[in-house]
């Protein structure tokens, strides 16, 4: 984090400067979720695994006050009042606090008895009209819960994001046949809009708070653009909330056209907002941890985080041991399902021809091009309206579009202001990684992303346009026609793994060794997703001032999973987060809509985007299948950390407040609905345990397949489980040949009553 220069005033008007930063401190002593007694005067508050904390009980509130008092006493004992600032006390999921300190104070604190760990704060970043139909929700899922107007009933989804635009129809409480009543258990607060004094909550939005103490202490917070309230100044938070829990049947209207009707995955679910991300700088972990801690305190059922670190903290030996991840582990232990992002048309005027005019050839005077790049078509005042009117305006896609200082939205507005029939935006140079998404336009327009086709059009324009000896245009003769506007189509090749989607393998430490736990977990829609947008939102230049946005990223995939998890939770309210995760993963599909293996986008050697056969490192267990997840038949109800080679058991205890259990012996035996071995030597046998969650006894046959370099065997070949019963099976992998690349396969359990679950298998063979 950048050093912040703070002025400190002392007596006699003496001024001096101290370099101060934000630190997250974890303390000896258990947080509320794992405190089993032992402190005189305070009874145990620990919950059973997957059980929610009763934050209203006197036992919990008194122990919470005790922890906060200890934090305050420690700081007050060590440092002079006014020389530091405590930002948050963390009490429910981790025992610690965030404080603004000088490096010297941090050094003193790190050596103080009772302090387990101290780390400097770090930043995090922000990592659909037709997806409900694509996922089969209206026909296969919503009817099982009473229809769309009951889908997600009484499930609270908490969103740690950039806030919400409460006036959007996707969040209106009157867009439902049955009014929202008081929630039976949620205890969160609702802030008022400081400008209007009106509450952010309305029944649909059930909680709304913002967290910015670290951002303020770091000098990054600007109240004029960031809003000191849950108001979304970015657009991202409104977009993700509407994907998961937005109202059903909301018309997506832009520029006078309707692009379909939007719905969240669980349209009846309640929305609880925990704003901790901001437009210009993302967010700070200490603010995000405070938001998560409060969300669990308030009683959310599902937590959606479209957020990830700019880079992992370098203060622990493993990438998954830090206050942020420890807080998420605590949330899961408290019974909260966490969905986290992995790493990010027009009108019809058919078949009439128009002349094309290049922006460079219609400048009002040459001086305009000195201040602006006229080919960007961002400034209508520098172009000659008489020459543009009624014609197609030809513009160039420069680096300004990549940098964000130019936008396709502004091109369309410029063309419309000048009376153009439409516009063409040509890409003459493209950098690897440049992503081109379609953008709704107020007039007909096209972006030509293929450089060779762009050059062909430019050559055609230059050949047909006659000029005088000074290069000035005498006559525009290039022509183009405007065809039908685009309509949304559910392609049979969908789904595909998008280029921006994070890939495995999962790294366990800063030597970038692979962890024996498969990531990502699951694939969900995240490319070109229509959803609500904040009118204040400036995160996407093409959607400034709009009510909806069509954007892409793993940030869009996470709320899909959160909303679908809400539907599973509604049907199975007693299921643990691990059971819900298992149901989603084991029933996912590795085939596209045409019945072919999933494909993944990747760069070729020539830096063009191509499609290749996808692997579990691309899609995890597969693409989510909501209807199957409601009735999986079997679940894998899941200490992974303790079995990681080289891990410090004391460090595990520091972050999780749980001692290591070494019975699993190896991380591959962590009972996850996937199987990964990054260093397979000779033969290794792994155990998995399943539970029958169906209502009747069922017999399962167990089959396996693996690529040739690794042999695979399963035992037993079949097993029968009564309703509620659990049984184990083993998977044995043997190296046949060392290839230097991972081998992929799967284990499938097929039931006699129609249930079927599969888990992906990945292994890398090594020599003895």
UniProtKB/TrEMBL annotation:
Gene Ontology terms: cellular component: membrane
InterPro entries cross-referenced by the UniProt entry: C5a/SBT2-like_Fn3, Peptidase_S8/S53_dom, Peptidase_S8/S53_dom_sf, Peptidase_S8_Asp-AS, Peptidase_S8_Ser-AS, Peptidase_S8_subtilisin-rel, Peptidases_S8_3, S8pro/Inhibitor_I9
PROSITE patterns: SUBTILASE, SUBTILASE_ASP, SUBTILASE_SER
Molecular function via GO: serine-type endopeptidase activity
First and last residue of the signal peptide: 1-20
Catalytic residues (positions): 161, 236, 555
Keywords: Glycoprotein, Hydrolase, Protease, Serine protease, Signal
Boundaries of every Inhibitor I9 domain copy: 23-125
UniProt entry tagged with the keyword Protease: yes
Domain (C5a peptidase/Subtilisin-like protease SBT2-like Fn3-like): residue spans on this chain: 651-762
Positions of the Peptidase S8/S53 domain: 152-592
GO BP, one annotated term: proteolysis
Family indicated by similarity: Belongs to the peptidase S8 family.
Name under which the protein is recorded: Subtilisin-like protease SBT2.6
Organism field: Brassica cretica (Mustard)
């Amino acid at each position: 984090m950048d050093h912040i220069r703070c002025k400190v005033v002392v007596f006699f008007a003496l001024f001096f400067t101290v370099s101060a930063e934000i630190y997250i401190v974890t303390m000896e002593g258990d947080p509320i979720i794992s405190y089993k007694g032992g402190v005189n005067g305070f009874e145990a508050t620990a919950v059973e695994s997957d059980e929610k904390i009763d934050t209203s009980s006197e036992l919990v509130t008194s122990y919470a006050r005790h922890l906060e008092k200890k934090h305050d006493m420690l700081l007050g004992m060590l440092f002079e009042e006014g020389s530091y600032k405590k930002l948050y006390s963390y009490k429910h999921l981790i025992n610690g606090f965030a404080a603004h300190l000088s490096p010297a104070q941090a050094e003193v604190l790190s050596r103080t008895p009772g302090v387990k760990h101290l780390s400097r704060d770090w930043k995090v970043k922000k990592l659909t009209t037709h997806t409900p139909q694509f996922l089969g929700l209206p026909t296969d899922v919503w009817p099982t819960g009473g229809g769309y107007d009951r889908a997600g009933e009484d499930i609270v989804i908490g969103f740690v994001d950039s806030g919400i635009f409460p006036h959007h129809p996707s969040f209106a409480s009157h867009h439902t046949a049955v009014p929202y009543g008081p929630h039976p258990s949620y205890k969160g607060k609702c802030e008022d809009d400081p400008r209007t004094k009106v509450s952010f909550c309305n029944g649909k939005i059930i909680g709304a708070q913002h967290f910015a103490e670290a951002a303020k202490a770091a000098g990054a917070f600007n109240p004029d653009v960031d809003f000191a309230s849950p108001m979304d100044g970015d657009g991202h938070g409104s977009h993700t909330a509407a994907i998961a829990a937005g109202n059903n049947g909301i018309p997506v209207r832009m520029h006078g056209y309707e692009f379909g009707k939007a719905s969240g995955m669980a349209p009846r679910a309640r929305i609880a907002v925990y704003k901790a991300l901001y437009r210009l700088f993302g967010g700070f972990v200490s603010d995000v941890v405070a938001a998560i801690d409060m969300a669990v305190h308030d009683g959310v059922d599902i937590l959606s985080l479209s957020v990830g670190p700019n880079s992992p903290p370098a203060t622990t030996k493993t990438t998954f041991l830090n206050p942020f991840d420890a807080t998420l582990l605590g949330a899961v232990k408290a019974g909260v399902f966490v969905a986290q992002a992995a790493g990010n048309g027009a009108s019809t005027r058919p078949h009439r021809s128009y002349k094309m005019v290049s922006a460079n050839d219609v400048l009002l005077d040459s001086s305009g091009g000195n201040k602006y790049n006229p080919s960007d078509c961002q400034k209508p005042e520098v172009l000659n309206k008489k020459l543009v009117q009624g014609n197609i305006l030809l513009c160039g896609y420069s680096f300004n579009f990549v940098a964000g200082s130019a936008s396709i939205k502004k091109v369309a507005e410029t063309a419309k202001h000048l009376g153009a029939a439409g516009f063409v935006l040509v890409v003459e140079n493209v950098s690897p990684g440049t992503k081109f998404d379609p953008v709704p336009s107020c007039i007909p327009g096209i972006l030509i992303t293929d450089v060779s086709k762009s050059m062909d059009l430019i050559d055609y324009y230059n050949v047909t346009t006659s000029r005088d000896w000074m290069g000035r245009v005498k006559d525009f003769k290039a022509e183009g026609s405007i065809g039908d506007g685009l309509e949304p189509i559910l392609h049979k090749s969908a789904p595909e793994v998008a280029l921006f989607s994070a890939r495995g393998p999962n790294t366990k430490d800063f030597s970038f060794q692979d962890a024996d736990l498969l990531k990502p977990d699951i694939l969900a829609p995240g490319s070109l997703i229509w959803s609500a947008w904040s009118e204040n939102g400036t995160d996407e230049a093409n959607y400034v001032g709009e009510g909806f946005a069509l954007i892409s990223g793993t940030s869009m995939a996470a709320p899909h999973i959160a909303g679908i998890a809400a539907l599973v939770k509604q049907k199975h309210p007693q299921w643990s987060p691990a059971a819900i995760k298992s149901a989603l993963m084991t029933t996912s599909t590795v085939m596209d809509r045409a019945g072919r293996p999933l494909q993944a986008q990747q760069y070729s050697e020539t830096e063009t985007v191509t499609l290749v056969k996808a692997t579990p490192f691309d899609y995890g267990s597969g693409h989510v299948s909501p209807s199957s997840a409601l009735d999986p038949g079997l679940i894998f109800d899941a200490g992974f950390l303790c079995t990681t080679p080289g891990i410090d058991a004391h460090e595990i205890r520091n972050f999780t407040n749980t001692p290591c259990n070494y019975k699993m012996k190896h991380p591959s035996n962590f009972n996850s609905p996937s199987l990964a071995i990054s260093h397979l030597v000779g033969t290794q046998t792994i155990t998995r345990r399943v539970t029958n969650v169906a209502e009747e006894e069922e017999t399962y046959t167990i089959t396996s397949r693996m690529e040739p370099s690794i042999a695979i065997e399963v035992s037993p070949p079949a097993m029968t489980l009564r309703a509620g019963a659990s049984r184990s099976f083993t998977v044995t992998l043997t190296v046949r040949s060392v290839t230097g690349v991972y081998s992929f396969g799967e284990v499938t359990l097929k039931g006699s009553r129609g249930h079927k679950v599969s888990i992906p298998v990945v292994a890398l063979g090594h020599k003895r």
